[in-house]
Design goal:
44% helix, five-stranded mixed β-sheet, single chain, alpha/beta, globular, 17% strand
Amino acid sequence: MATRSTLRFGAQTDEVTSLLRIVNMVRTGDATTRPDIGRVTGLGRGVVAQRVDQAIDMGFLGDGSIGPSSGGRAPRTLRFRSDRGHIVICALGALHIHVGLSDLDGTIIDQSHRDWEISRGPAETLDATLEMVDALRDRNDARPVWGVAVGLPGPVDFATGRPVAPPIMPGWNGFDVRRRFEQHFDAPVWVDNDVNLLAYGERARRPDDDLDLIYCKIGSGIGAGLLSRGHIHRGANGAAGDIGHVRVAGSDLPCRCGKVGCLEAVAGGWALTRDAEAAIAAGASGQLARQSAEGTPPTPENISRAAENGDALAISLIQASARVVGESIAALVNMFNPSVIVIGGAVAAAGEVFLAEVRQRVYELSLPLATRDLSIVQSIDDVSEPLRGGVEMVKEQLFETTFPRWFADQQPSPSLTAQASSSSQN
């Protein structure tokens, strides 16, 4: 049997490898009884029994209920001990903070949401976020935190957990977000772009392990999460998918990033708000104008709802945004050749009013081979999606990327996961 020292340093002996594999097979449901494990792995009954007993002694597995019989004595199932720890998820947007708590199997236990402007800076924002998480933990059972996911609305260097020149986050550039959470929870922390969390969530609900998918979020800003053969593609410095600041031909509109003509400045939610206010000031009528006169500003959410209700101004704004966004997505389709494009965000919440225009532009401008098996769909309208995506990211990092490094200690820690996570980034 492997020594504790062998396990601690992650030496990939046959025994360690099979032990890790068995825990993960039970965790994912690929094999839930000892006979199943033997059939899948090819290990003998005695070896399987030894590995399972060791995993139970270490606290990763437990005996479950009696399974169905295949002719002899019914086997007892095994279960992953998902109750041993919590995963914390913090999804920060331009105008909100959303936090959640989950089991190790990804089941969301509790969550909380509040309006918040991320432009208030990192110190105040992270203090508010941690207060919200502490309140969740106080009203749930006490378990150690095994991992933390943080999503930010801007480019992130995944290896360091630091934002990189985020256009809508003054004061955040280079801020050590990871360290702030590690100090608070004494647990490993992974910081990523918020759209990547949404892409993780989409991957979790689809059966294809080798999925090629683009998640485009059209909210206050615009960004894309890229799944290549089932893995998030972040690029060399975490900037992959930042399509919101691709130049739109013929546009000289100033962008929040300091440049001009960016896609976000033409088609993002804040740009639609700007254009709606200008049109109303010029005398436009309809639902948006009435709401504005009553004191309700034309936010991206209000513009989308008005478009669904048939407001002419809102429809024209949504369709104009979708046409420009569709042109940028078409370039991604020709380069990346995904099988699925998922459209989400407050502006895309207008549904078919937005999607129809995007589809038309993508199919007009993309190569026939690239669109032959392509589907363009709207995301699930569920505020919990970023939380589910954050859980998927942490589970991947804990049980696939860093598992051999901390397995022997039976609980992850920042020091044991940092090196493996950093070296595995895409």
